[in-house]
Amino acid sequence: MENNAKVHIMDHPLIKDKVTRLRDKNTNVKEFRELAYEISLLMGYETTRNLELEPHEVETPLTKTVGSYIKQTVCLVPILRAGLGMVDAIVSIMPSAKVGHVGLYRDPVTVQPVEYYCKLPVEVQDGLTIVLDPMLATGGSAAAAIDFIKQRGAKDIKFMCLIAAPEGVEVLSKAHPDVEIYCAALDEGLNDHCYIVPGLGDAGDRLFGTL
Q1: Dihedral (CA of 196, 87, 44, 144) sign
Q2: In the chain, what are the helix, strand and coil shares in percent, each to the nearest 5?
Q3: Which of 23, 106, 126, 152 is catalytic?
Q4: For residue 87, what is the enclosing H or E element?
Q5: Could you give all domains of the chain from N- to C-terminal order, each with its CATH number?
Q6: List 27, 88, 126, 202, catalytic entry
Q7: Is 202 marked active-site?
């Protein structure tokens, strides 16, 4: 994969430590959820680094001063179902964030992503939209989800995942070159079943305790 200024791979020691624990097959559901939350929380700071600010005057116990309030509305859009495991972390640092949802399934005949659910806040048209999905594997679902979100008027979009494969990054970057990609780790690639290697298995199953 060629260097891409729109792709941001987190290199913070705390994130690397937690990603390693997240990968461990012996990590139970409770620990997995907690780690996904903590990694998403740490990534949230970097993903929102360039939010627009506006000046705001406040009065401290000593005097008046001018600080800053966030000007942009932030909309979080998890891709169902695994993306739900990342939402609460971002909401904890931005309680005013709006939350939408996108659900996709892959048509068994055409093998194309099909939207079965999409409900978004109207603010996606003017604010920053952060699309959340723990895994960026083939990139097909992420690209399709962003297609659907753009059709609803979103213009400023970022994609945030925990683990990415080079193949998925390439597909998403080509489909949406305007979308910045944030990932906690960029892995080796995909196996014959399109699972990320070394990866962490099925993120949805590990988050929700299903098989």
Answers
A1: positive
A2: 35, 30, 35
A3: 106
A4: helix 84-93
A5: 7-51+70-208 (3.40.50.2020)
A6: 202
A7: yes
106 as an active site residue: the answer is: yes
Question: Among all chains, which residue has been given the structure tokens 């979009």?
Answer: 157
Tokens of 18: 């937690």
Exactly one of 110, 126, 138, 156 is catalytic; name it: 110
Q: What angle do CA 40, 42, 47 make, to 5 degrees?
A: 80
| Per-residue pLDDT tens listing for the chain (211 residues) | 556 779 999 999 999 999 999 999 999 999 999 999 999 999 999 999 999 999 999 999 999 999 999 999 999 999 999 999 999 999 999 999 999 999 988 777 776 778 899 999 998 999 999 999 999 999 999 999 999 999 999 999 999 999 999 999 999 999 999 999 999 999 999 999 889 999 999 999 999 999 7
> Is 11 part of the annotated catalytic residue set?
no
- Catalytic site residue 110? yes
Predicted local distance difference test score (pLDDT) of residue 55 = 96
Quote the CA–CA distance of 186 and 167 in Å, as a whole number: 10
According to DSSP, the β-strands at 135-136 and 156-164 are: parallel
**Amino acid of residue 101:** H
What does the block give as tokens for 119?
Answer: 């409900």
pTM: 0.93
